């Protein structure tokens, strides 16, 4: 029993000493943590204005900047400018896809038509045109369809149907031109209304405040900048589409002359 009591007493002393050491360590750690927190929460040497300025100057994402400028410019007029951009781009993309699909390898088409005329006659050549996509093939089909009426009738048919195809190629260009003109006008209107609001604020204050005037002018000019950006983007697409149409029209005219030459040769062989 004495040995048991002595063993328990030794264990108790050891555990008490361990607890004391652990408590001392916790106090030391707590003291160090308190000092670190105090150092972190201590007033910075830099003034608060400098910190706020650095936070204001922190870079933002491009989408956040655009969103902020959109809100500053006024939701009403900026929404109209945005709609002009969306509708204008939609028409431009549709025209570009249509014109790319309308492009045809005319040299290959003319060679196939000539081979078909020599092998199977006019009906075989018309079948080649039916199986080929694009306005050039459609014009060739209209000319071949009137081959029996004479070369002069074929020529008039090609010219007339070429005008029809040209109108289809130029479809939608007037709407693109409208949006190119409308976007800056909407921007200028927003600027004028913003300037009127700025002068109303000056009149209400009774004194001229540089801050109020500068802020109003800045907000008013955002709509003008947005309208000009939209017009520039749509103008680039418009010029590309016009140049694409001019290329297709030139190809149509050159290919039509070549078709008439092929039909004259075929008619002479008959």
UniProtKB/TrEMBL annotation:
Its main location: membrane. PANTHER family: BIOPOLYMER TRANSPORT PROTEIN EXBB (PTHR30625:SF15), PROTEIN TOLQ (PTHR30625). Keywords: Cell membrane, Membrane, Protein transport, Signal, Transmembrane, Transmembrane helix, Transport. It comes from the Bacteria. InterPro entries: ExbB/TolQ_transport, MotA_ExbB_proton_chnl. The lineage of its organism: Bacteria, Pseudomonadati, Bacteroidota, Bacteroidia, Marinilabiliales. Residues 1-23 form the signal peptide. Pfam families: MotA_ExbB (PF01618). It comes from Carboxylicivirga sediminis. The chain crosses the membrane at residues 77-98, 173-196, 216-238. GO terms for cellular component: plasma membrane. Belongs to the exbB/tolQ family. Residues 134-253 form the MotA/TolQ/ExbB proton channel domain. It is a multi-pass membrane protein. It is found in: Cell membrane; Membrane. GO terms for biological process: protein import. This is MotA/TolQ/ExbB proton channel family protein.
């Amino acid at each position: 029993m004495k040995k048991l009591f002595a063993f328990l007493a030794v264990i108790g002393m050891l555990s008490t000493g361990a607890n004391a050491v652990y408590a001392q360590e916790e106090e030391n750690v707590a003291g160090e943590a308190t000092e670190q927190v105090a150092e972190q929460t201590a007033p910075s040497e830099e003034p608060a204005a400098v910190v706020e300025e650095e936070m204001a100057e922190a870079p933002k994402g491009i989408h956040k900047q655009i969103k902020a400028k959109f809100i500053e410019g006024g939701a009403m007029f900026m929404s109209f400018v945005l709609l002009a951009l969306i509708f204008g781009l939609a028409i431009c993309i549709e025209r570009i896809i249509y014109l790319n699909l309308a492009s045809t390898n005319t040299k290959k088409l003319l060679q196939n038509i000539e081979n078909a005329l020599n092998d199977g006659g006019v009906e075989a050549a018309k079948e080649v045109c039916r199986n080929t996509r694009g306005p050039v093939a459609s014009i060739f089909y209209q000319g071949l369809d009137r081959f029996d009426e004479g070369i002069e009738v074929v020529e008039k048919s090609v010219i007339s149907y070429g005008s029809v195809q040209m109108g289809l190629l130029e479809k939608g260009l007037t709407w693109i031109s409208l949006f190119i003109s409308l976007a800056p006008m909407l921007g200028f209107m927003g600027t004028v209304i913003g300037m009127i609001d700025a002068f109303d604020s000056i009149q209400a204050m009774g004194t001229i405040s540089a801050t109020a005037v500068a802020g109003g002018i800045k907000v008013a000019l955002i709509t003008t900048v947005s309208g000009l950006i939209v017009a520039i983007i749509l103008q680039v697409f418009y010029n590309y589409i016009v140049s694409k149409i001019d290329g297709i029209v030139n190809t149509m005219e050159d290919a039509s002359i070549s078709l008439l030459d092929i039909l004259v040769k075929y008619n002479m062989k008959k």
